[in-house]
């Protein structure tokens, strides 16, 4: 065992001697990380199965608009509320085409989703912002009524290690919903409500 230690020390000594007599070679390594210039949004429709448990939700594929359709009455804790007939909500996955720094902005247009009361749905739609890490893991960023989601923004630093996902759903009064939203009741004015969501990328 002792002899092995001595031999090892000799080999290392010769190796060190060999490299110190050699010439030094160098080469350049480089890579260009492009600045992001555009944003891409994939909108998906999701079936909640009528439960608050997200583990049984079914993703139904891509959508081109957020359409909750005709709402139907449902009794929740002895109160009558209106919810989507097919129990749907939506998710928007937001990606960019390059590196930061950049900021993603969320804008809502249209009085139907910026006001509140019996003739606006501004306080009846829940908007949830998360940093999605992978298919099953996410970090909450913000959650509010759609009228208060107007002007929300998130930077590349905030989203480091993931991407922005935004959920849109009709309020049901379930635990965990933000305090600025409330369910739609039969006292709401009967008509079709329309508005626009814009997602914009800006760079310094």
How would you describe this structure to a colleague?
With about 200 residues, this protein is mostly beta strands. The protein has one domain. It has 2 helices and 11 strands; from the N terminus they run αββββββββαβββ. Strands 2-1-5-10-7-8 form a 6-stranded antiparallel β-sheet. The longest helix is centred in the N-terminal third of the chain and has 20 residues, at about 1-20. The radius of gyration is 27 Å and the shape is elongated.
Secondary-structure topology with pairs:
Layout: H1 2-21, E1 39-47, E2 58-62, E3 71-76, E4 79-84, E5 88-96, E6 103-109, E7 125-132, E8 138-145, H2 146-149, E9 152-155, E10 163-170, E11 196-202
Antiparallel strand pairs: 1-2, 1-5, 3-4, 5-10, 6-9, 6-11, 7-8, 7-10
Sheet with most strands? 6 strands, antiparallel
Tally of separate helices: 2
Give the total of beta strands.
11
Strand-pairing-aware structural class: mainly beta
This entry's quaternary arrangement is: single chain
What distance lies between the first and last C-alpha atoms, to the nearest angstrom?
65 Å
Share of residues in helices: 10-25%
Our estimate of the beta-strand percent is 35-45%
Q: How many structural domains are formed by the residues? A: 1
Low-confidence stretches: 1-18
> How are the strands of the biggest sheet laid out side by side?
2-1-5-10-7-8
Helix-strand string: HEEEEEEEEHEEE
Radius of gyration, rounded? 27 Å
Residue-averaged pLDDT, rounded?
A: 89
Shape: elongated
